[in-house]
Amino acid sequence: MTVSLRPRKSSAKPLSPDPIQIWVQTRPLDNFQLGNVGLIKIDIQGGEIEAFKGMRETIKASPKAKVIVEWSPPHLKSAGHSAGELPALLSDLGLGCMIALDDFEETQWSADQMLSAFKSDQTGRKYCNILAQRA
Fold first, then answer.
1. Can you list the alpha helix ranges (DSSP code H) found in 2-124?
2. Mean pLDDT of the chain
3. How confident is the model at residue 26 (pLDDT cuts 50, 70, 90)?
4. CATH of the domain spanning 29-133, picked from 3.30.950, 1.10.150, 1.10.730, 3.30.1490
5. Where are the domains of the chain?
6. Which whole-number Å values give the CA distances from 131 to 64, 90, 94, 109, 110, in the listed order?
7. What is the pTM of this model?
């Protein structure tokens, strides 16, 4: 997997305006055979889809698992995914009971409501966290 790192926006002048690409070796979480887990927290700047694909068996073996995942359409887009893919994949994995926690507006939304809010966001910077579990 190749990761692109961009300098953060700040008042300091960045060392380079170009992203730095670094090759990172990854392994599916399922390779670790963790068995039944209670909590999974993911915030990997667009790599969430691939991470969940690599933990299908772990989630299957964890009927009471709670998942907290950052849902950031700009990061997903940079990784080649649409905003709607993340809640769809969570649902496919059996984690269909979802609440989107919008820290900016301090509200809770359904995944469909949040997806609609993303589509109407003019800044393109809106994101939230999803809390998901089995129904």
1. 48-53, 56-60, 73-78, 85-92, 111-120
2. 86
3. confident
4. 3.30.950
5. 29-133
6. 13, 10, 13, 11, 10
7. 0.81
